[in-house]
């Protein structure tokens, strides 16, 4: 299916808060980063309020909603506490992710199939509040089918295994992972789910993934904040937008299959 719409870029500001918290105090301010992201062309802001508050804090989420005129994607564990916070803040969307205290970053997709009993009532509470619900899952048929059965609006496909395989030179494995992402995106859209992607993306991988016609949005944070050390946050976001636009222009032909 040909998609004329551009791929949206959601900028994750978690690691601006990581830098702030490493030193203490108020700077750098993740809300200022989000405002700068908007000025540089970002289409949305993503922030993960972890249970241990290791980077983004409750006040950050409140300010992001109040002070940044872009859709807010609230990444969260599917817990009673987080559902209550999300319902109070009222973000545009909530992306439900697995969360372990010992992990450095989200290491895998949510087990939507295995945790359906726990997820279903909390998804219903979020949707009741007018919040779109996204599930961060692996591109596996069982997980995609579970997302549909749970009445999620969106799936965000975990791109980390693909990006890691490329970075480590495991290119045949990377091709297999990419094929899995493409097949998962097609299956999800067939089932009526909006398809996003995220985790580990850089300019090159974002460009290639944007060529997959079913992809509607990419959420990227760590790479953009890292690049900002060298070129500034606004420039890293503009360069990412350009990479995504190049990929989308390639469409579903050679750019998606190469």
Architecture overview:
The chain has helices at 14-23, 30-39, 58-67, 80-89, 116-128, 141-149, 160-167, 171-190, 203-210, 222-231, 233-250, 254-257, and strands at 8-12, 44-48, 72-76, 93-96, 132-137, 154-158, 194-198, 215-220. The chain has one domain: TIM Barrel (Alpha-Beta Barrel), CATH 3.20.20. It has an eight-stranded parallel barrel, surrounded by nine helices. The protein is globular and about 45 Å long. Helix 3 (58-67) links the parallel strand 2 and strand 3. The chain is α/β, with parallel strands linked by helices and 258 residues long. 3-amino-2-oxopropyl phosphate binds at residues 12, 23, 200, 221-222. 1-deoxy-D-xylulose 5-phosphate binds at residues 14-15, 50, 55, 105.
Summarize the structure.
With 258 residues, the protein is of the alpha/beta class. It has one domain (26-257): Aldolase class I (TIM Barrel), CATH 3.20.20.70.
Fold blueprint:
Blueprint: E1 8-12, H1 14-23, H2 30-39, E2 44-48, H3 58-67, E3 72-76, H4 80-89, E4 93-96, H5 116-128, E5 132-137, H6 141-149, E6 154-158, H7 160-167, H8 171-190, E7 194-198, H9 203-210, E8 215-220, H10 222-231, H11 233-250, H12 254-257
Parallel strand pairs: 1-2, 1-8, 2-3, 3-4, 4-5, 5-6, 6-7, 7-8
Helix pairs in contact: 2-3, 7-8, 9-11, 10-11
């Amino acid at each position: 299916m040909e998609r004329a719409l551009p791929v949206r870029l959601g900028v994750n500001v978690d690691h601006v808060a990581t830098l702030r918290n490493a030193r203490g105090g108020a700077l750098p301010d993740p809300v200022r980063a989000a405002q700068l992201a908007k000025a540089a062309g970002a289409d949305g802001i993503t922030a993960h309020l972890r249970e241990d508050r290791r980077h983004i804090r409750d006040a950050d989420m409140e300010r992001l909603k109040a002070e940044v005129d872009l859709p807010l994607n609230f990444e969260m564990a599917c817990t009673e506490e987080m559902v209550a916070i999300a319902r109070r803040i009222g973000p545009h969307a909530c992306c439900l992710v697995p969360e372990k205290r010992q992990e450095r970053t989200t290491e895998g997709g949510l087990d939507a199939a295995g945790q359906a009993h726990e997820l279903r009532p909390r998804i219903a509470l979020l949707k009741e509040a007018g919040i779109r619900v996204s599930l961060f899952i692996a591109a596996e048929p069982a997980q995609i089918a579970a997302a549909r059965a749970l009445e999620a609006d969106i799936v965000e496909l975990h791109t980390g295994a693909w990006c890691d395989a490329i970075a480590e030179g495991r290119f045949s494995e990377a091709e297999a992972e990419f094929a899995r992402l493409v097949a998962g995106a097609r299956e999800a859209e067939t089932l009526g789910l909006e398809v996003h992607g995220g985790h580990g993306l850089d300019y090159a991988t974002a460009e290639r993934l944007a060529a997959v016609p079913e992809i509607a949005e990419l959420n990227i944070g760590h790479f953009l904040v890292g690049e900002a050390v060298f070129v500034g946050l606004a420039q890293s976001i503009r360069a990412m937008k350009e990479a995504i636009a190049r990929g989308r222009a390639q469409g579903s032909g050679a750019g998606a299959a190469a």
